[in-house]
Amino acid sequence: MSRKKSAKGKVGANSPSKSPSGKSSGKITKSYPGIAPLNGVVHPSRPPISNSSEFYDIAFKVMLVGDSGVGKTCLLVRFKDGAFLAGSFISTVGIDFRNKVMNIDGVKVKLQIWDTAGQERFRSVTHAYYRDAHALLLLYDVTNRASFNNVQAWLSEIHEYAQQDVVLMLLGNKADSTHERVVKREDGEKLAKEFGVPFMETSARSGLNVELAFTAVARELKHRSMKDPSETFKLQEYVNKEMRGAGCC
Ligand SMILES: Nc1nc2c(ncn2[C@@H]2O[C@H](COP(=O)(O)OP(=O)(O)OP(=O)(O)O)[C@@H](O)[C@H]2O)c(=O)[nH]1
């Protein structure tokens, strides 16, 4: 698979966007064409529009944020294509997205997942996208202490630019890198607890918890949008239960 990332960085310029794998994934505009109205308005299996090729009932925008190199693009590619982008690291330029439709208890939930550039120089570009995000996955790299130390700064940024009720989850990525690990799982758990954010470790390389992270977010968003009082959903409890079930951690 090509390791080439989107290299346009012309957000709002209506230039065709390239996915991390080099495939076209649609146009980048701030009006997000092809996405259902905000706050999870339910559509009776609406037909595909714009660049989406699958039917869905509800759609949400999810953003991946965190320092450069923590594995945002790799996590997205693992989730979308089930593959790992090995090889030399090429930083994302600007912002890009890919769609995935998930079946959550018979409801087709479409996630439009935005992969942002972690580099400081693109920060003003990504700020513009926070406001429309329904969920944010904030990543750090368990082999990079600085990326963990920066989590607090990312949370401040999120509080400043994102919606107040945005679904948020902290992910400690590269959990496969046992020898290079410098951030313990307990440290991630502690920090997450401190800020009241659900947490889990992931690995884009091995696939550990990647599907689970997106499924948990999709379930939370679906639950919120359906507002079914008979059903309660607690993201962290769901994640813990699923991980125990999988014999993990
Ligand atoms: N061992 C290991 N390496 C990973 C994992 N995820 C990503 N990497 C590697 O980390 C490097 C950076 O990954 P990217 O996904 O490009 O990082 P990013 O967060 O998108 O970086 P920016 O685009 O600069 O924001 C690449 O060399 C990947 O191969 C993982 O789970 N395990």
From TrEMBL:
Pfam families: Ras. One of its GO terms (cellular component) is membrane. SMART domains: ARF (SM00177), RAB (SM00175), RAN (SM00176), RAS (SM00173), RHO (SM00174). Its EC number is 3.6.5.2. One of its GO terms (molecular function) is GTP binding. It is a lipid-anchor. Residues 15-27 have a biased composition (Low complexity). This is small monomeric GTPase. The lineage of its organism: Eukaryota, Metazoa, Chordata, Craniata, Vertebrata.
